[in-house]
Design goal:
Shape: globular
Number of helices: 16
Number of strands: 0
Helix content: over 70%
Structural class: mainly alpha
Number of domains: 1
Radius of gyration: 29 Å
Order of helices and strands: HHHHHHHHHHHHHHHH
Amino acid sequence: MMDKRDNKINSERNNEIHNEISNETNNESCDIRSSEKGTLRNRFSNIKKKYFGTKQFYRMTLGVAVPIMIQNGITNFVGLLDNIMVGQIGTEQMSGIAIINQLLLVYNLAIFGAVSGAGIFTAQFYGKQDHEGIRHTFRFKLYIATLLTLGSILILTFFGEDLIAMYLQGEDKGLSIEEALRCGKQYLWIICFGLLPFAIEQAYVGTLRECGETVVPMIAGIVAVFVNLALNYVLIFGKFGCPMLGAAGAAIATVISRYVEAAIVIIWTHRHTGRMPFIVRAFSSWRVPAALCGQIIRRGTPLMVNEVLWAAGIAMINQCYSVRSFEAVAVGNIASTVSNIFNICFIAFGDAIAIVVGQYLGAGKFKEARDTDTKLITFCVTLCIPLGVILYLTAPLFPQLYKTTDEVRRLAAEYLRVSAVFMPVWAFMHASYFTLRSGGKTIITFLFDSVYLWVIAYPLAYVLSRYTAISLIPMYACVQSIDIIKCVIGFILVKKGIWINNIVSDGQAKQSAEA
């Protein structure tokens, strides 16, 4: 009996010990699971905090980006309608005008680069609330924009025909190269009359945006594109008793719209001196301090040269595509016009990064500058993913709007689909470029942008076009694919924080925020 009792007691004790061990094990497992869940929640919270902003943050940044987006969107959409109108005349006329627009891209970006070089200082002066500094940079913009315009007009006047002929190569496949050359020359001669108002208007618009005013340039741009659209319809097709001018009509409409846009921006600025105090006494003197002028030239020249070389590089790459056939000019024109509508998102956010981050840097708020930049880049790339999907799915529809050959329509659709795939890549590159530029790191942006293009992309396009039999679309895809390397370089440069720099403080102090 005693043995039975002992066995029973031992059995009960063993069960109690087993239950205690099981409970402790279960409690430890629960603690581990809770700890893991807590760690995951903390990680997610940290990621969300680092890469995504609050409603107030997006309200502030979208307040800068959306007006630019609307202006660019309407401009590019009307540009598409404009392009379709010209396309109704014929493929040769559309190609001639497309070649001139490719050449003018070099001029446009030269103006953009020159104005933006001074604009780096304008944004930081505005963050510092130094209106005299803004006044000096505004004068500098007017000087450099006027000089570049006069030089460009001379080059286009004496060498325009030779530049157009560079693109009229390859098999014509029933299309008239002579007619494309004639239309291009005619369009170029007229469009030169609109270059000076464009340059002056860019000096005003750049300054307004850097001072936080993005709505007025948007309104002026919208008015101008609708004036352009209406006059295109009247002058290209000869409506309401006007003669049918074709390509010449398109040029005249563009020139008139340039004067309209410049007039709106200039008049508004001079009538709102309270909101734009820099314009007060802006023309009482044309002096720009030598020290500031030297700083702008030192930091701005690489930026301007970069824009010119980048545009020239793109023009030369497109010339490589034209070696395949004369049709490549029309294909590239259709595809670039359509893709520009979808690209407005990352283009606008590039401007937003330059303005908002530049203002934080000028005010010495380096941590806020880094935080804002990270969130803006994330938002920009994220938005471009669904936009790329939409462009990929709708690509075959847009070329059907043009009066051209079936082969041009097919190639344009495939060209657009390649562009759609690379849209998030371009978004990150664009955002990285403007991040580096916001802190005045123009030498680095020069190496990152145009040097990379001329050393890597252009040689690849040249070799593929001259020494292989690869067709147009695979060639285009190969050239675009090497931008992935550029993204990696951009990521490293942005993450290191070398762009975090105040260039308008009294001592030109340079500080960095912790990553």
